Model the fold of this input.
Amino acid sequence: MLSRFKQTELWLPGISVDCVIFGFHENQLKVLLLKFHNTHVWSLAGGFVGVEENVDQAAARVLYERTGLTDIYLKQFYTFGDLERNDRAAEEHRSVTTAMGSPDDDLSWMSKRYITIGYYALVDYSKVVVNPGDISDAADWVDIAALPHLFLDHNKIVNKALEAMRQSLDEKLIAFELLGDTFTMSEIQAVYETILDKKIVRTNFQRKMLSLDILVRIEKKFTGGAHKAPYLYRLKP
Amino acid sequence: MLSRFKQTELWLPGISVDCVIFGFHENQLKVLLLKFHNTHVWSLAGGFVGVEENVDQAAARVLYERTGLTDIYLKQFYTFGDLERNDRAAEEHRSVTTAMGSPDDDLSWMSKRYITIGYYALVDYSKVVVNPGDISDAADWVDIAALPHLFLDHNKIVNKALEAMRQSLDEKLIAFELLGDTFTMSEIQAVYETILDKKIVRTNFQRKMLSLDILVRIEKKFTGGAHKAPYLYRLKP
DNA sequence: CCAAAAGTGTTGCAACTACACCCATGG
DNA sequence: CCATGGGTGTAGTTGCAACACTTTTGG
Done:
């Protein structure tokens, strides 16, 4: 069952990719996490690199396998190659294998040294159909502000991904990748405020967004809340 | 002779590090390049990662082996993992091995697939004592504006390093890493102008530099040129 | 009417740009 | 003297933050 995660001649040895998959829901920035079978060990979506596969492709494949999505904003941000990143590997390996109670499941790869290439992905939360995969029995979106302790150095990887994303936020307008095709101005603002972790004055934010000349206001208005009528916007093509 | 470059159990398989070593001399931003024995194939300073070595340490070691320097500003900027990066490997491998004419030299590693982790280093040109190492017979500083065709995708790696360096130039004040302990204001400006590839108004640049409150003006003046007397500066501790 | 959403105007600050102009000094 | 290096002043621009205020609209 775990055969495709075993190290065979199909995969490059000692190398993995890890995807920090960000989504935005209920005014929270969330990360997609996986939980190993019968344990409470949470980890990022990761995988290996095929011998006939680009590293970027491997990351896109991992993303696809867990979310069913393609053509997603996916960016390499750092490569983690410290020996210490596996310091706790033996311990966690034990707890994982013990919990699984199946001596046939070869999880020895967990305790080997890996250099992992970190990618972050920005996806439309509502479009994701989560698939935990073979080695996990659960997958959940977890608020970035309330992350549990993660496998190995995955907490560090998430933090580094957040940093990288913040850097590119204005420059590359990646906030829209987290939203659907249409969105209200306050939704965009919520994304910015959550990622940058600070309040923004509405009027100034709105002016700035509109001055970028990348948004189209859709005449059809939002048929939602109690006493309101926010406009919907769409990105210009 | 080439034994330490062969893949043995001492090195991680399929992984390398490449260092883009920048120096500044005669108003030019230069990169340290190596030339394989008896060929005209130029490449970056690269190496493998020891099984008991952090990736960062491997990069620092490579830098040390070629320049004799330690405690250098060295930053990971990208990991190159495309299959195509080795597309020309076979061809270049042939030209290299043929030129070397020594069937004993195992250069088969050249045509294998490698994922390489890119680092850039900023060094004081005048402090470098170049050591070409075992597989190269020459090492030279080459003006960034006149790079030859490099081994594999090393041109791409240099360009990506330049981009990354530009990004961090203001933010982290890395320009000073390229200068000696003391320097004139126009030297700093030359570094900035070369890296950013644009002219800067002298007065504004000077004001900005001094306003950062990181420079100490040394009373002793520069005993150099024809009709002038530029001040020397030093970084505050 | 009321509350939320949207839009307009203004003020002030900080950073940067582009010049004009000054002083100092070594040959 | 003059060419070069070094320094000051100032006017214009831009982006941003903060705040006040008005308008629109659905219930």
Summary: Chain B touches chain A at residues 12-15, 49, 51-56, 76, 78-79, 81-84, 113, 115, 117 (CB under 8 Å). Strands of chain B lie at 11-25, 28-36, 42-43, 45-50, 73-80, 115-122, 136-143, 182-183, 215-221, 231-235.
